Amino acid sequence: MRHFVIVGILIAILTPLIYLGIAANNVMPIQASVQALPVDWMWDMDAAAIAFLFSIIMVPLLYSLVVFRRRKGDTADGEHMEGNTRLEVTWTVLPLLVVTVFAYLGAYTLGETRIQAPDAMQIAVTAQQWDWRFDYPEGFSSNELHLPVNRQVVLRMQSLDVIHSFWVPEFRIKQDVVPGRTTEYRITPIRVGSYKVRCAEMCGTSHSYMERPVVVSSEAEYEAWVREQAAAAAALLAQGGPESGKALVAQNGCLACHSTDGSALTGPTWRGLFGSTVDLADGSRVTADEAYLAESVLDPGAKVVAGFAPGIMPKFSLTDAEVKDIVAYLETIK
Amino acid sequence: MRKFTKSALFRGLVWQLGGWFVGALILTGIRAVMGLPPFGLFFFSEPAWVFGGFIGVLSFIAGSGIANDWFKWAKGEPTPEHHADPPGWEKYFSVSLDHKVIGIQYTVTSLFLLVVGGSFALVFRTELAEPGMQFLSLQWYNTLMSLHGIGMIIGILLGVAGVMNYLVPMLIGAQDMAFPRMNAFSFWIAVPGVVLLLSSLALGGFDTGWTGYPPLSARGPVGTQMFFLGVFTAGWSSILGGLNLIATTLRLRAKGMTAFRMPILVWAAMATSIITLTATQLIGLSFQLVMFQRLLGMGFFDPAKGGNPVLFQHLFWFYSHPAVYVFVLPGLGVISELLPVFVRKPLYGYRWVAMSSIGIALVGFLVWAHHMFASGMNSYLQVPFMYSTLLVAVPTGVKFFSWVATVWKGKIEMPTPMLFVLGGIVVFLLGGLSGPPNATVATDLHLTDTYFIVGHFHDTIFGGYVFPFFAAIYYWFPKATGRRMNERLGKLHFWLMTPSFLILTLTMMRIGLLGMRRRIADYDPALGLSAYHVVMTICGFLIALSVAIFLFNLIRSIRQGERAEGNIWNSRSPEWQVPSPMPVHNFDREFEVVGEPYDYGLKDSQYTRFITEPREGESHQ
Amino acid sequence: MKHLDMSGAVRQGASIFVFLAVLTGLEFFIAVSMDAIILLGAVALMKVGLVMYYYMHVYKLNAESGEDRHSPEYKTATDRLGLWLFLLSDSFVFGGLAVARFNLLGLTRPHLNQLLGLGVTSVLLLSSFFMNRAESSMAHGDRRGFMTGMLVTLALGLTFVAGVLGIEWPTAIAEGVSPSTGAAGAIFFMMTGMHAFHVVTGLIFLAIVWRNGMRGLYSAERHWAVEAAAVYWHFVDVVWIFFYPALYLVGRLA
Q: In Å, how far is A31's CA from the nearest CA of chain B?
């Protein structure tokens, strides 16, 4: 009996110590979204359970190792205890109940993170190896995700190639971006600041660098940024020519695979491409003129350059004017 | 050396390489005739590499002679029941039908793979010590990381097979496995699989992680195909091994050994084998589907052709989650088997512990989609899979509580095997307790694909497999060799490895929560995690050092260890009732079971009793 | 083991075959007249039940094999268990393929030649009947009956493979269901291909047994290899009992 009392006391001491130890350690990043609150609350419940279960097993185990250790010269066997059905049933049924409660809490907190606000703003996200692009409802796109604080946003996410995963640690939630379907990411930022979206699903060579800034600002600052971006984009596109092409190239994430400095990435480099003679995978050769470049943008599989794999580059849907601008830009890269 | 070049291993490998080359040449010729481009980035085209690899596996089977008896059966020729093994070390390189030899072959191959996989981890761990890329390229980092994962997994599967192969027939009083030839085949088929897997290093590597999710794995270099083909080949080892163990346990138990009088490790082996027998087929299938997608453009997982990338994940995890239980159940069985010996008390609640193994295995079939909470699968699946996942905690809890109750009021001794058993319990407890936050969906959305998961599964697998595996080696080494391993080196191994490992995995969990993603070659210095990475790298090297001490101890003790031919652990288990090393056909006299397996502390009780008249020799065919 | 006299065994095999044929016809009739997946599933389960019990003799797993570990009866019983465990394992491959089929295509089916489908199905069913006949002939010591049964089974098996690989595949490709055009073609070729691979291995197995039978290696008492070949062959039929409706009958045309 004495042993049980001591162990009980030790468990009662150790459990809160471990729990407070986890809590005091700032194990989670700052909470920057409404959705982080239920997640962290659930984590807290998990931590409490961990503290208790850890103590209830470790204390009697370590206690036994110290107290019941075989003394020198003792050759006797231990007490013959085969088991106790009532005890076994207890430690089967009690965990079963606890588990059921936790499943309920898990479902409940999951629901909390999914609550939809009627005025949620929509932003389209396009992921591709190894970049993020954000298309705003105002008709421009950017590689930075800007969000107004305290307003729910729904990211409608698509992937052009492989599976990626959208994760901002400060927002807590993570959602894969799967080719061939649109996945949703619903978040309400509550803290002004700069964060980063980091791709969390292995997506190939440069997976570790697939990060882009996420800026949460006040409604007014956000509006100002949107106006500025929309105006700049409109001006650039209206102007036409190589500058506009350069903007389109950046917007569409072409530079993830095509370099402008002569180095070979996933796709051929653009340096000195215009006007050069290109060897194709089928053995033929072609001169890189306007028609060839335009075709290669719109239908990359039509003429594949020798040494590069087909099927990697997606088909881009661009207007003729846009393609013309891009080709004009390619012409300038000597 | 001459002897080695005549061995099945050498001949098999030579034949495999030859078959590989010839197969690739044949397909290259066919492609040339068909007007397809005959050569690819790595000299041969991808289909030629794959076809050649497949022919290589068949050639290995032919060259090593592992299927010769079956060919004779097909021709209607008789074969002897047993083949005498060559004496000395050669038998370990030749095709032996003795389950003890095969068990050791498995174990040594497993140690080899674990050392290779561990070295890969050291390389990229060093790379991670500082932000920025120091000496590895991104592609090499990804390849080593992926190979570390799958290499360790296959290494563990072989280790599990080694422990079960060596022990189960002994523990149930059988002369050998039910199908000795298939047993040999199961081991040997893993060898060409491992060769294929490692060949991916030379063929561009693969950057998909061990999970090989398409579409990424459908576009990587040729190495990805070698990874798939290697795992597929080695998978047969698991499937046939599981089949054999189930048949052996059901058919060849000693007289009087009813289900609830089997040693607990046999229960664990049974639960494990149910999983390997059935679920393994699905990882084989899922990998085959990606291989065919790459070779023939079949669009199973290609959304442009109406395929579904998430389908792969369902098929893949249907095996790969239960696979975790394949790794840990035998280890937990070893813990349950050794605890009573070292505390001199019965295993508390034997029946409950036995049933909990089966329970974990069966519930394990229903939890796979918890790996996919963030994958974009149908969201109505999330809650049921959360509940089934949490249910695993119940039988696992039964095991923990029963262990604690077993230790309670025992007469505890702590030689090296017991230290590893206790270390296993503690580490597995940490792995288990870091599980529920991954199960409750909301928290998992933050934790999945981070270092938290990495820490969590390293804890479960070290606690459930690595620690008990070391315990088993220290404990049964005398059974195999008649000598024991050095106690002081063993304790040094333990006390070096355990704290380093705990610091390593707890740090992993911590930085995962703070934003360290899984599988990245480089990390943002702005996260402020550099100091943690230095600590983890140091811990990694300490673990490597401790394993080096273990290997030194192991190799030295084979010849120079202290002699230990009797029942040195004072165990009730049947294999310790005969002298070590174990005789060729296990027990000279058959025994019958007359009591409970773990009745330590009960006066005059016996587990087994030898049936006095000696067995009728070798008179049977 | 139950001892029927030979004519009893033949009569039983034949009546089971008639049941199976009627059920297959019913299946086809259900498919053309209504959209009833559950009904199709129920019919397939009935067929599988009949094959597993009367052709594969699943109950033999439970047969008494004595105490002596070294007796041939005991070893055969162990072998039988091993074979069934292997079939259990193998059925997970086919189960996985069936899951993939319903995941990818849902309740639609590819454009396939119905007559061909019904044709090859009948051929395979008929081969199971002859396989059963060959096995029970051997069990009654009738070697000539055994050899004839085996030959007919082999011929029908070859016909099935030729039908699927030589006629059905080109026909499907001609109708636009090819491996690389879309998910439907991919899964059709994968399912039929994986099944055909098993049929071919079964044929090799049958050929080996036939050759060894010709050399007189089997007797009424000891013919485990014959039994194993038969059980494996019927298993291949069982798979097709599910795959045929899954590919040809279930759901609406895509």
A: 12
Give the angle subtended at the CA of A265 by the CAs of B307 and A286, to the nearest 5°: 85
Cα distance between residue B315 and residue C97, in whole Å = 9
Q: Give which of A70, A79, A59, A67 is closest to A18, Cα–Cα.
A: A59
Q: What are phi and psi of B490, to 5 degrees?
A: -60, -45
Q: Of C72, C207, C213, C212, which is closest to residue B77 (Cα–Cα)?
A: C212
Contacts with B380 (C-beta within 8 Å, 6 or more apart), sequence order: none
Identify the CA nearest to B197 among candidates B158, B224, B163, B164: B224
Give the closest of A43, A96, A205 to B139, CB-based: A205
| DSSP output for B247-295 | HHHHH-PPBT--GGGS-HHHHHHHHHHHHHHHTHHHHHHHHHHHHHHHH
Strands (E), B449-601: 483-484, 562-563, 591-593
Q: How confident is the model at residue A298 (pLDDT cuts 50, 70, 90)?
A: confident
Nearest to B435 by CA among A170, A15, A99, A61: A99
CB atoms within 10 A of CB A272: 11
Chain A to chain B Cβ contacts (< 8 Å):
275
In chain A, what is the greatest distance between 2 CA atoms, to the nearest angstrom?
A: 95
Q: Which residues pair with A123 in a beta bridge?
A: A155
Q: Is C104 an 8 Å CB contact of chain B?
A: yes
Nearest to B282 among C96, C185, C217 (CB): C96
* B88 vs A5: CA distance, rounded Å: 58
Q: Is the dihedral of CA B368, B371, B375, B376 positive or negative?
A: positive
What pLDDT is attached to residue B310?
93
User: Which string of DSSP letters, residue by residue, matches B67-115?
Assistant: THHHHHHHHT----S--PPPSGGGGGGS----HHHHHHHHHHHHHHHHH
End-to-end CA distance of chain C: 49
User: What does the pLDDT look like over C107-144, one tens digit per residue?
Assistant: 888 888 889 999 999 999 999 999 999 999 999 888 89
How are beta strands A145-148 and A211-217 bridged, if at all?
parallel
Q: Which of residues 69-128 of A touch B (CB under 8 A)?
A: 69-70, 74, 76-84, 87-88, 91-92, 95-96, 99-100, 102-103, 105-107, 109-110, 112-113
- CA C204 to chain B, closest CA, distance in angstroms equals 10
Which residue type sits at C194?
Answer: M
Which helix H or strand E contains B145, and what residues bound it? helix B138-172
Could you tell me which residues come within 8 angstroms of residue C223 by beta carbon, excluding any fewer than 6 positions away?
C138, C139
B408/A65 Cα distance (integer angstroms): 9
pLDDT at B618: 45
Is residue B528 within 8 A of residue B516, CB to CB? The reply is no
* Centroid of chain to Cα B124: 22
CA dist B48 and B199 (Å) reads 14
Which sign does the torsion angle of CA B399, B405, B406, B407 carry? positive
Query: d(Cα B242, Cα B276) in Å, to the nearest integer?
Result: 6
How far, rounded to the nearest angstrom, does the alpha carbon of residue B509 sit from its chain's CA centroid?
24
Instruction: Name the phi and psi angles at B604, rounded to 5.
Output: 60, 20
Q: Which residues in chain C come in under a pLDDT of 70?
A: 1-5
Angle of the B416-433 helix axis to the B467-481 helix axis, nearest 10? 150
Neighbouring CB atoms inside 10 A of C174's CB total 10
For residue B512, give the nearest of B504, A214, B461 by alpha carbon.
B504
Residue B614 has pLDDT above 60, yes or no: no
What are the helix and strand counts (H, E) for chain C? 8, 2
Q: Tokens 């490692």, residue?
A: B198
Nearest to B445 among A3, A39, A105 (CB): A39
